[in-house]
Design goal:
The complex is a heterodimer of chains A (306) and B (279).
Chain A (H helix, E strand, L loop, with lengths): L2 H12 L9 H33 L3 E2 L4 E2 L5 H8 L1 H35 L3 H12 L6 H6 L2 H4 L4 H8 L14 H25 L3 H9 L4 H30 L2 H6 L7 H10 L3 H23 L4 H4 L1
Antiparallel strand pairs in A: 1-2
Helix pairs in contact in A: 2-14, 4-9, 4-11, 9-11, 10-11, 11-14, 13-14
Chain B lengths: L5 H27 L18 H6 L8 H31 L5 H13 L2 H14 L6 H26 L4 H8 L4 H29 L15 H11 L4 H33 L10
Helix pairs in contact in B: 1-10, 3-6, 3-8, 3-9, 4-6, 5-6, 6-8, 7-8, 8-10
Classes of the chains: A mainly alpha (306), B mainly alpha (279).
Chain lengths: 306, 279
């Protein structure tokens, strides 16, 4: 870009037209033309699959194949079985506990990075250090807990050698504990990043003002920082809750197939080729997730907060 | 500079523990992958060796790891390029606030929050009922895009929220066509962020498991292959594979970060004559 552009830009800023980019009906046409690839991908691989799942959820199934029909059997079976309710409850439990843990961890880490680390260089370096695991394989990160938590793992042998316990703890691996630990391990990043992003935009003068007005550190945190961090907390919550509710692989792997959540219900049905019943469960799961997100989106305008 | 409050030291310790929590398990399996030939899945180490890495390179010991690696790499690159192009176009489109953009935005959010297994199931069902063969490069490719595109678009939203439209108006005032404006003004300005989009596009696809489960067909991608191994491999060879994959991910991340840094430097060298009277 040359100086001409810079100068012309200054001129353009001074004489800013109210309409931003493009005017009139042509704008809508151009918009859709540019959004066409996106619309195509989402139409073909998001909307159509959802429609297909809804349709198939009314179909019937034999042991080997599925056939078109209009049956309520799948839903009836699903909604009258207490397995469904237990599994949904379990899913909500995982989501709630993981959410609470990731929120506390994520908020604290983001707070440290945004307010206690003073140089931008260190902030970026430490932030990157936090985000790198996000870009590595989730399955490998799950496997990594085995030598740590197993019967003869590091945690048990350390506790035994310190004399804290006599026999290895059985509940460390393949239990609810290990499932939630893995969730927290995998998804805390999704809290750290949006909360850090929001905190970096908080005007530092507000904190000084609070201090000048006589607020203690905790009061500043509670009455200034937390309310202003809410958009980030909401976005992080959306990520963590949906990732945990839709998961099936972490629960299967970390519980040693002993616990169930809705995702596993679906994947078990898929394994048995019972696609209609898997679809019915999927529809209910999707409705649940979208309701939760619908409620959360009332508290935050994602596009503005990015 | 004023002295650090006590909370700084408490939080520093907390942060260090958090990093240990993040990286500890990965470091553990990295150490264990160098187990001696008699070693097992846990400590103690029975000697050190490269035995398990050698095992990885002998096809019969494990499945088709290298084939699945090539497929994951190819798929990741395909998804990366598509994600960049579609996200930039989508980002530009949303700025125009065209009629119906609100609806499209909700579709993007749905794509982000929908449980991955639903995409797998739905795409798999469509291909099955339409009599098409599922293949990682067709059904798998589309399924991955539903995961990478929302991230790409969110980054583009963040970029365009901070984008000064005066540059475009200036280009127009100087007689640039809309295409010239995008090619010579908008794209150079947003280029560094596109490295972020590329990083998300590649790595999210490269590591994706759930959305590939029913859409990859008869040829596994790497995450599927690794998951298969977790159920039937009980030797440290799986740690060796994990270590190698993680090392590869680190290299990929490093390449992107260096690219970002280099682009920043190139930009710092060029175009700083603005307002200094040099034309």
């Amino acid at each position: 870009m040359s100086a001409d552009v810079e100068i012309a830009a200054t001129g353009a800023r001074a004489a800013r037209a109210p309409a931003q980019v493009g005017r009139g009906p042509a704008r809508h046409l151009q918009g859709w033309a540019l959004a066409l690839p996106l619309t195509l991908v989402l139409g073909l691989f998001l909307v159509l699959p959802i429609v297909m799942i809804v349709i198939v959820s009314f179909w019937g199934a034999t042991e080997f194949s599925i056939y078109p029909a209009f049956l309520w059997d799948n839903y009836q079976f699903l909604l009258t079985s207490d397995v469904t309710y237990r599994v949904f409850l379990n899913t909500v439990k995982y989501a709630a506990i993981t959410w609470a843990c990731t929120l506390v961890l994520g908020f604290t880490v983001a707070y440290f990075l945004a307010f206690q680390v003073r140089s931008l260089g260190w902030q970026i370096a430490l932030f990157l250090l936090c985000t790198i695991p996000f870009w590595t394989s989730n399955i490998i990160r799950m496997i990594s807990w085995i030598p740590f938590l197993g019967r003869e793992g590091l945690a048990n042998s350390a506790l035994i050698s310190w004399g804290v316990i006599d026999a290895p703890l059985e509940w460390l691996l393949f239990s609810d504990f290990s499932v939630i630990l893995a969730f927290v391990h995998l998804y805390t990043l999704f809290m750290v990043v949006p909360i850090f992003n929001t905190m970096m935009r908080i005007d530092r003068a507000l904190l000084e003002a609070a201090a000048d007005a006589g607020a203690s550190g905790w009061q500043t945190l509670w009455h200034v920082v937390i309310p202003l961090s809410k958009p980030g907390i909401m976005i992080g919550t959306i990520f963590v809750v949906t990732l945990v509710m839709g998961d099936f692989i972490t629960v299967r792997f970390m519980s040693g197939s002993q616990s169930a959540n809705v995702g596993r219900l679906i994947s078990n049905d898929i394994g048995l080729l019972q696609y209609p019943s898997a679809s019915a469960t999927a529809v209910i799961l999707l409705i649940t997730v979208l309701m939760v997100i619908g409620i959360l989106l009332r508290f935050v305008d994602i596009r503005r907060e990015l | 500079m004023e002295p650090r409050p006590r909370s700084f030291y408490v939080l520093s310790a907390f942060f260090a523990l958090f990093l240990l929590f993040l990286y500890g398990p990965t470091i553990t399996i990295a150490i264990l992958s160098f187990q001696g030939p008699q070693g097992g899945l846990t400590f103690p180490m029975r000697g050190t060796s490269l035995h398990w890495f050698r095992d990885l390179f002998q096809e019969q010991a494990v499945g088709d790891i290298w084939g699945s690696f090539r497929r994951s790499l190819a798929l990741g690159l395909m998804v990366m390029v598509t994600t960049i192009v579609v996200s930039v176009m989508g980002g530009l489109a949303f700025r125009k606030r065209f009629a119906g953009s609100g609806l499209l935005f909700y579709l993007v959010v749905t794509s982000l929050v929908i449980p991955s297994i639903l995409i797998s199931l739905g795409v798999g069902l469509i291909f099955q009922q339409a009599g098409l063969r599922v293949h990682w490069a067709t059904s798998g490719f589309g399924a991955h895009l539903t995961w990478t595109l929302p991230f790409g678009l969110l980054i583009m939203f963040a970029v365009f929220n901070r984008f000064d439209p005066a540059y475009e108006e200036a280009a127009r005032d100087l007689g640039a066509t809309p295409w010239q404006t995008i090619r010579h003004v908008v794209l150079p300005i947003i280029a560094p962020s596109l490295i972020g989009v590329a990083l998300f596009g590649f790595t999210l696809s490269y590591d994706e498991f759930a959305r590939t489960l029913l859409t990859a067909g008869s040829h596994n991608t790497l995450p599927l292959e690794i998951f298969g191994m977790t159920t039937n491999v009980t030797t440290p060879v799986i740690f060796a594979l994990g270590t190698l994959t993680t090392a590869f991910s680190f290299v990929v991340i490093a390449v992107f970060l260096i690219g970002y840094w280099a682009m920043g430097r190139r930009r710092a060298r060029q175009g700083t004559d603005a307002g200094k009277g040099m034309v």
